[in-house]
Amino acid sequence: MTGARSAAVREADAVALARALAVRPVLCGVARAADAIDFEGRMLLHAGPPIPDPAAMAAPVRHSAIMAILYEGWARSGEEAGLLLDSGAVALEPAQDHGAAIPLAEVLSESMPVLVVEDAANRGLRTYSTVNGGNGPVMRVGLCSEEVLERLRWVGAVLAPRLARVLEDAEIDMIDVADRALREGDDCHGRTVAGSRLLCERLLEAGGAAAFPAEVRAFLDDAAAFFLNPWMASVKAMMRAAEGVAGSSFVTAIGGNGVRFGLRISSRPGRWFTVEASPPLIPGRADLYGESAGAVGDSAIVDAFGCGAMAAAAYAPQTWERIRQTCAEHRLAFPVDLLSAPHPAFGRATALRTGLTVQRALALSQTPVISLGVLDGSGARGRFDGGFYFSPAEAFERAWAELEAHDAAA
User: Fold this and answer.
1) Are 269 and 283 in contact (CB under 8 A)?
2) Cβ distance 400 to 263 under 8 Å?
3) In whole angstroms, how large is the CA radius of gyration of the chain?
4) Contact by Cβ (8 Å): 319, 360
5) 323 Cβ partners below 8 Å, 6+ apart?
6) Please, are residues 152 and 170 in contact by the beta-carbon 8 Å criterion?
């Protein structure tokens, strides 16, 4: 690409970045998924890039798809659900292609509740995520059991209606919560203890002491990752606002499905650039690498935005120490100046940097490090631990090659 074309990409990237920075995401409601997202027939939304063949799904994601089918009542047993999935009668779609972001191996179906995030500066822009199921037997870790179904049903019948009632007359500024959480030692991805506490405090302030019965309050007090889902939807809103800028290499989607890892860029909406998804690295546990699933989850967008692993050196010492250990064990370098744009809405965590572009990543030979939960590849043991995924340069190179080819043909 010539110097003039490179300059044109930088200008387009600046436009996309400005659109993202203008978004002010607020958590404003809970809805039935099918009332917020266009589900065409029997359809399931999953993390990461497309899954063209259900027979080639990562085991944890397949388990979650089976759980979703049973939750919807489309099958009466796990075996019947698996046969239905393999028949192609259930469509599989990337959640990010529908304005949603899904953690780990979780799958979203039409009857499930979703958290609704809206841009306070542009009320027509809405994005979504699932409601965090807390600890224990949860769908996001890829377990397949009656206990997972019971938790899904409890979230849908008990937790979600309570949250919906509170958010009918209130909205929560998600950047403000993230800004404060970073200053308290969170990274807003792998570590979200402060963010979850702050978010629950806001919900209690909005709803009053009687808003949540004892079992819901106990759940919220124990759900240290509760903040992550609405924060994922908030980051998705910022990325979605940046879509559709001609000539831009700004990253607007990124994530893994356990088999493939990929990204999208602003100028090529809907087009995923993918590579094989290797497992994330767990510090001190190289022995688990061969048993781990490939990188899975849309939460990669949080680190691409600038939180998670990318904010750890400045704000999350516990996360940063684990990253340093991982880099030392595997002789890997951490990207130090990949993200260069300050976010004007982060008035406390002023060291936060954002604005991931393919052009800058390749110019610096750096790609984001992503804080990801590491799942058992067989789907039997759930989550092994938290780890770090050093996103492959090849996905960025493929996006750049197409951008170059498109510019040359224009």
Assistant:
1) no
2) no
3) 20
4) no
5) 309, 312, 313, 334, 369, 388
6) no
pTM tops 0.70:
yes
C-alpha dist (Å) from residue 57 to 52, 134, 293, 362, 386: 9, 25, 11, 30, 22
Characterise 214 by phi-psi region: left (phi > 0), alpha (psi -120 to 50), beta (else): alpha
Consecutive 10-residue runs of the chain (410 residues): their mean pLDDT? 80 98 98 96 97 94 98 97 96 98 98 98 96 94 96 97 96 98 98 97 91 93 96 98 97 98 96 98 96 98 98 98 98 96 98 98 98 97 97 98 78
For position 181, what pLDDT does the model report?
98
CB < 8 Å & 24+ apart, contacts of 133-136 = 134/219, 134/222, 134/223, 134/225, 134/226, 135/222, 135/223, 135/224
Q: If you write DSSP's letter for every residue of 347-368 in order, what string do you get?
A: SS-TT-EE--BHHHHHHHT---
pLDDT at 1: 56
Pairing of strands 273-276, 260-265: antiparallel
For the chain, the structural domain boundaries read: 3-17+243-409
**DSSP code per residue over 111-171:** TSEEEEEEETTEEEEEEEEEPP--SSS-GGGT--SHHHHHHHHHIIIIIHHHHHHHHTS--
Instruction: Give the CA distances from residue 284 to residues 222, 330, 334, 385, 387, in Å, rounded to whole numbers and listed in that order.
Output: 27, 10, 17, 11, 10
- The beta-carbon contacts of 2-8 under 8 Å, at least 24 apart in sequence, are 5/404, 5/407, 6/359, 8/247, 8/407
Homologous superfamily in CATH for domain 3-17+243-409: v583 domain like (3.90.1700.10)
CA dihedral for 323, 265, 40, 92, sign (positive or negative): negative
The phi and psi torsions of 189 (rounded to 5 degrees) equal: -145, -80
Instruction: Say what the pLDDT of residue 209 is.
Output: 78
Contact 396, 367 (CB under 8 A): yes
> 257 forms bridges with which residues in the sheet?
296
